[in-house]
Amino acid sequence: MSITTAADGIKDITTPLSDADVESLKTGDRVRITGVLYTARDAAHGRLFPLIERGEALPIDVRGQVIYYTGPSPARPGDIVGSIGPTTGGRMDKFTPALLKLGLKGTMGKGARSQAVKDAFRQYKGVYFGAIGGAGAVLSRFVKKVAIVAYEDLGTEAIRRLEVEDFPAIVVNDCHGGDLLVIGGGGAGLRAAIAAAEESSRLSIAVLSKVYPMRSHTVSAEGGTAAVMRENDSLDTHAKDTIFGSDFLADQDVVEVFVKEAPGEVIQLEHWGCPWSRDPDGRVGVRAFGGMTVNRTLYAADKTGFHMLHALFQTSLKYDRIVRYDEWYATALLVEDGRVGGVAAINLHDGQVRSIAAKAVIICTGGGGRIFPFTTNAAIKTGDGMALAYRAGVALKDMEFVQYHPTGLPGTGILMTEASRGEGGHLKNKDGYRYLQDYGLGPPTDEPVHRKMELGPRDILSRCHMQEYAKGRTFEGPYGHYVHLDLRHLGEKVIDKKLPFVRELARNYVGVDPVYEPIPVRPVVHYMMGGISTDITGKTSLNGLYAAGEAACVSINGANRLGSNSLTELLVFGARAGRAAARAALEQPALKANPLALLAADERKRLEQRFFRADGRERIADIRETMQKAMEEGAGIYRDRPTMEKTCQTLRTLRERFARIGLSDRDAVFNTEVIAALELECMLDVAQAVAHSALVREESRGAHTRTDFPKRDDARFLKHSLAYCTPAGPRIESLPVAITRWPPEERKY
Ligand SMILES: Cc1cc2nc3c(=O)[nH]c(=O)nc-3n(C[C@H](O)[C@H](O)[C@H](O)COP(=O)(O)OP(=O)(O)OC[C@H]3O[C@@H](n4cnc5c(N)ncnc54)[C@H](O)[C@@H]3O)c2cc1C
Question: Which residue of the set 405, 465, 610, 704 is catalytic?
Fold first, then answer.
């Protein structure tokens, strides 16, 4: 390997270059080249080309070499070479693929290259460096020796051999990217990337992730993934359960596609290595989940997300054309002429802001539960992709619907999976009473019954908890009120086989072994039903932009998601978005490099001024804490107008305060303070979209419960809400719900 990364983040390159060297370079990399460069412009290329066509030897061996498109001016006395600025690379486009085929590895010039040349970089592993235009005299300082090696009669256009030291350049086109960029390396992102790679072998696909893909939040999913696998089940039943669970706000055409494609996806995942748990007869096991009429949740013990993500990650490694940008943080979509042309992102390893061009972009950045103080979501779930799309003019759909999961551990919010109730766990109040029977979910039975008692849907179970609390029938602990999740009657064998992770978490985080004691639990923010508004293929209203997974709202979850539908959603709609975006990328021409470079430069300036050099007096920790508290108060399980209005006002004030933040870490390498500030800026956008959408919806539906409007109101609100970004805050519009075969009815379990 003749490439190393220096402490300043610049890559030091020594020529000649190997395929592996070229593969390690990525668009946006800053480099210093040492070794040999050959010069050649139009006239010299015009002479080389007929030789190539006739299969004759060239005057230079191009294998592993870099050709610099320049014609140096004569050297002044005492100088090695005169001004040596780059000429336009596009003029050499018709010759370059043939030279790359012969083993040329690098070209250097200024301006954009044609699609054919970019394809050739990928096919033959080549790279295009941009040299600094207008600074020819400066560049000559890096040249240590010059000799003419061919076509002396061409004067300045003769082929020269330059020996250079630390010659500065930027990678403009690498051998990977340019077609499709996926932001997010979780379940949705990896499924989308694989689908795109399968769609065409001509596509180059980049996956950019702020954490290493296997640390994406999908890894923490526990209970399972829903798909129709058994004779006692049907697509219609799965569709009806989902629509009923959504309180009739799901788009029914989308749900029908979802349930139809789900079984193929989970079988495919098994073929990719996902070890689904089995029944004794060898068939894939299915367990009960809340709100489902039959057992239809496939699982891999209670570590389903870990195994699914592993299978997807391993499969993605099979494709050379999927290149990863691990630990890069996307800060903005680059949009020109109503079309997305790439993203600006910070490479966390060196703090450099780079632009990554793409003909289509898929946002798979997951949810934003961290806008609330108490959540099952890890610190990385800050709604970044939602905010990026929102700022680019795309609507966020149904943001008011935030799911509370009824069983999180007090203090940490760590999830006790719904599978523990699916396997037969009981919820009991401080009197040891299975209180759900008092809320229309009874009668209580020893064995779990679908859609009854503990297998009711999450929104209803969370409200029941709050009502028990209001009646003084919950326990009180250092982290507030809680009830008991009792698994003791399942016995150690079942717990260890089917819920080993629950036992491990309960022991480690609350010091309770569920084999012998009940686990303290309380409702906790878990999932966002809303997200980037997409159509059934994952396409958004912005040309070239797609979204999938929890970041998106394709609209299968409506007002309340059924547990185990979202892992399936990321498979079905990750794959759909991947295919659709791949087709779009194949059809679209690339955006011109110049406007993209300007957009990226603007973003670089914004980040520099507002974040890397932020010197105000406001602390991001204070702003974050105030935001989370306001969200819990105004947009929690129960909502009403006065508290929501107060929350909206608090969020407005927080935005003003955010403009005055101060950050003390000035380091470029892994500056987590800057990233936390960028995440907070995203969370403020997402929080506003949630609070304002909630204020406008004057009814109670699914997870959105208003004490001032306690009934569902189909006449006024059987519609999606769309939040648009404006300087004055979110503007809320609406969109009809697609009803196909299931007319709205009262939602009773
Ligand atoms: C504890 C827990 C348990 C769950 N259990 C289940 C279950 O059993 N069944 C079920 O169906 N659902 C479950 N869910 C929900 C489900 O796991 C998630 O909805 C789903 O995994 C989200 O996947 P995703 O690919 O959309 O996002 P994630 O897996 O969260 O991935 C997001 C990706 O985006 C990247 N990213 C984010 N922002 C940026 C940025 N600015 N720049 C670059 N990259 C960025 C991240 O690095 C990451 O790679 C659970 C959720 C939780 C929290």
Answer: 405
Contacts of residue 434, defined as CB under 8 A and 6 or more positions apart, other chains included, come to: 426, 427, 428, 444, 453
Helices (H) and strands (E) in the chain, counts: 20, 30
- Answer for the pair 662, 618: CB distance below 8 angstroms, yes or no: yes
Residues 6 or more apart whose CB falls under 8 angstroms from that of 533 comprise 394, 395, 396, 397, 540, 541, 553, 720, 722, 735
Structure tokens, 166: 């630390």
User: Is 405 designated active site?
Assistant: yes
- pLDDT lower than 70: segments of the chain: 1, 177, 590-594
Burial bucket for residue 348 (CB in 10 Å: 0-12, 13-18, 19+): buried
Considering the domain delimited by 599-731, tell me its CATH architecture: Up-down Bundle (1.20)
Q: CB–CB of 265/568 below 8 Å?
A: yes
Compute the distance from residue 31 Cα to the ligand 1 centre, in Å. Answer: 35
Q: Separation of 187 CA from ligand 1 center, angstroms?
A: 7
Ligand 1 environment, Cβ below 6 A: 183-189, 208-211, 213, 216-218, 220-225, 304-305, 329-330, 364-367, 376-377, 380-381, 384-385, 415, 417, 526-527, 549-551, 564-567, 570
Q: Is 607 exposed, middle or buried (0-12, 13-18, 19+ CB in 10 A)?
A: buried
Structure tokens at 292: 């489902």
**What confidence score (pLDDT) does residue 153 get?**
96
405-525: CATH topology? Flavocytochrome C3; Chain A, domain 1 (3.90.700)
Atom of ligand 1 lying closest to residue 568 CA: 11
Ligand 1 atom having least distance to the Cα of 309: 29
Domain ranges within the chain, ordered by starting residue: 3-175, 405-525, 599-731
pLDDT tens digit string along 643-656? Answer: 999 999 999 999 99
Q: For 3-175, which CATH class?
A: alpha beta
Using left for φ > 0, alpha for ψ between -120 and 50, and beta otherwise, residue 202 falls in alpha
Give the atom of ligand 1 at the shortest distance from the alpha carbon of 189. 25
421, 434, 522, 604: the active-site residue: 421
Determine the distance separating the centroid of ligand 1 and the alpha carbon of 108, expressed in angstroms: 41
**pLDDT tens across 287-340, in order?**
989 999 999 999 998 899 999 999 999 999 998 788 899 999 999 999 999 999
